[in-house]
Design brief:
There is one protein chain. The chain is of the alpha+beta class and 279 residues long. It has two domains: 175 residues, no CATH class; 78 residues, no CATH class. Helices cover 23% and strands 34% of the residues. It is built from five helices and 14 strands. The strands form four sheets. Strands 1-3-10-11-2 form a five-stranded antiparallel beta sheet. The longest helix has 21 residues. The C terminus is likely disordered.
């Protein structure tokens, strides 16, 4: 089974490498410094340790180490107008030879330590920064499972972008009329990132969700919502809300208390099955 998985991965990586070669986008490859981009136009932070114990806290030190290496590749990256930032092209392949350590990674429905694991926390942060600056999302893949209950959530559920070198990528295009600078880093307790520019943004962005719900399907519990980006222009133009994500994924933790009783009853009636919680 492991051999089959690795063969599939190799095929997907070859296909993506050929696409990069034959159909290149205007990739962002320039470097700069904060001195040339005095305005911090968007900023985000993400805690490195979300729970005091359990699987979510396992391999935290190794994940933090991996994030430091990846942040060094991303930080001080300049994205010119219409250029596309690619997470996989920027960070590169995460190998032991490049200093990466085993950390938890979601593969085939389960968490297991893999070389370079934990970098989805950085791609999630960059995704939020892209939304904050009204960037065009060129490629984004959602997480397949909801692994843990919310702990101090400050953004809508599903605001993430999973990555796996090189064919599961996160890419966004700078739609601003001026270049921006990405800066990322790791502090003692948090991953941080910011977008800097020479000019303030001509708008502010609000990210919100609707239709958030837990529901049961064929005995399993799922979580879903719709995430919107509202751009409010400073010059008085009408604000516009754009649907950017429609999330639906299977919940992997006990969540019977989160499913409304009426939703459970409707699910049981449709499926003709007995509620596993009542067996």
């Amino acid at each position: 089974m492991r051999t089959i998985f690795r063969t599939k991965v190799a095929c997907h990586r070859l296909r993506r490498s050929m696409r990069w070669l034959l159909n290149p986008l205007p990739w962002a490859t320039g470097r700069g410094s904060a001195a040339d981009f005095p305005q911090a136009v968007a900023a985000r932070m993400s805690p490195l340790r979300r729970a005091p114990d359990g699987a979510i806290a396992a391999f935290t030190e190794e994940k933090t180490h991996n994030l430091r290496l990846a942040c060094a590749r991303v930080s001080d990256h300049v994205i010119e107008p219409d250029e596309v930032f690619s997470f996989c092209r920027t960070v590169g392949k995460t190998t032991r030879a490049r200093g990466y350590l085993p950390a938890l990674e979601l593969i085939q429905g389960g968490l297991r330590p893999e070389i370079g694991g934990g970098l989805c926390q950085l791609s999630n942060l960059l995704f939020l920064l892209a939304l904050d600056t009204n960037a065009e999302i060129v490629e984004r893949h959602r997480h397949s499972f909801d692994l843990f209950r919310d702990v101090g959530r400050s953004v809508p559920f599903g605001c993430g972008a999973t990555v796996f070198y090189n064919y599961v990528d996160f890419q966004f295009r700078n739609t601003l009329p001026f270049p921006v600078l990405l800066r990322t880093g790791v502090e003692t307790e948090a991953l941080w990132g910011e977008v800097r520019a020479a000019h303030p943004l001509p708008f502010r962005v609000r990210i919100f969700d609707t239709d958030h719900r837990f529901f049961r399907r064929r005995g399993d519990i799922y979580r879903a919502n719709r995430v919107w980006r509202e751009v409010c222009w400073h010059d008085g133009r009408d604000s516009a809300a754009e649907l950017v994500l429609a999330n639906e994924c299977r919940v992997m933790y006990p969540a019977d208390d989160l499913v409304p009783r009426e939703a459970q009853a409707a699910s049981i009636q449709r499926s003709g099955e007995t509620d596993p919680g009542e067996r």
